[in-house]
């Protein structure tokens, strides 16, 4: 199999995994849309969303573990949580808070515009508070870390080298930022900076649960 064909297949597989994640978020959007007018229909969409989340979670976990068993030169796996690692994770969270607070102050003082996707998220939470909050805090961090850190590095930057780590981190963050804004702007760099921090966490701890935990804390803080 040629390199171009192999990379094409990997890109196609990544896109399909991304579509699977987006399908669950679309079901939540539909539930939110009908929450105030057609309650029974909204509840059906919520049920379909929960089923899709369960299926996608099983699929992602199985595929990720399968990839690591087949080729894992960086030795990604499960590292036990201890005081030192928890302390390091909290320091990374403080750094993420600094980024978030700095960005919010720039918005408050009208140096930067409010991200359009954040406005949409705020509106969704108002219409369907519990499910949108639960999805943003508990579901999105898991699926996005599997996608933008786990699968992304396994598919495209799996070699154990300094340049592979650096390029993988940069591209992962940029992709993460672009898919949150769907346009290149200053706001893209904000989300990209969060993506770079999450990718760095994944590569440093070599355990995807740590980047998931950091992503979870960030989203929880944003909602609170």
Automatic annotation (TrEMBL):
Keyword match Transmembrane helix: yes
Domain CAAX prenyl protease 2/Lysostaphin resistance protein A-like: 128-220
Pfam families: Rce1-like
GO molecular function, one term: endopeptidase activity
Keywords recorded for this protein, A-Z: Membrane, Transmembrane, Transmembrane helix
Transmembrane segments: 12-32, 44-64, 89-112, 132-152, 164-183, 189-205
Top-level division of the source organism's lineage: Bacteria
A single GO BP: CAAX-box protein maturation
Family assignment from sequence similarity: Belongs to the UPF0177 family.
Protein name, entry field: CAAX prenyl protease 2/Lysostaphin resistance protein A-like domain-containing protein
Species: Secundilactobacillus mixtipabuli
């Amino acid at each position: 199999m040629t390199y171009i064909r192999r990379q094409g297949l990997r890109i196609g597989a990544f896109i399909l995994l991304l579509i699977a994640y987006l399908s669950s978020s679309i079901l939540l959007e539909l539930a939110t849309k009908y929450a105030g007018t057609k309650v029974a229909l909204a509840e059906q969409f919520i049920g379909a969303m929960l089923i899709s989340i369960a299926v996608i979670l099983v699929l992602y976990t199985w595929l990720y573990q399968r990839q690591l068993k087949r080729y894992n030169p960086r030795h990604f796996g499960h590292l036990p949580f201890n005081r030192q690692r928890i302390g390091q994770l909290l320091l990374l969270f403080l750094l993420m808070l600094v980024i978030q607070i700095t960005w919010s102050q720039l918005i408050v003082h009208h140096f930067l515009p409010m991200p359009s996707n954040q406005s949409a998220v705020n509106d969704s939470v108002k219409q369907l508070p519990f499910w949108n909050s639960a999805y943003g805090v508990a579901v999105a961090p898991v699926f996005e870390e599997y996608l933008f850190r786990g699968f992304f590095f396994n598919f495209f930057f799996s070699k154990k080298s300094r340049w592979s780590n650096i390029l993988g981190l940069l591209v992962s963050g940029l992709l993460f930022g672009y898919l949150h804004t769907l346009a290149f702007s200053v706001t893209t760099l904000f989300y990209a900076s969060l993506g770079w921090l999450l990718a760095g966490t994944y590569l440093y701890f070599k355990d995807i649960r740590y980047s998931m935990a950091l992503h979870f804390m960030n989203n929880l803080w944003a909602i609170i």
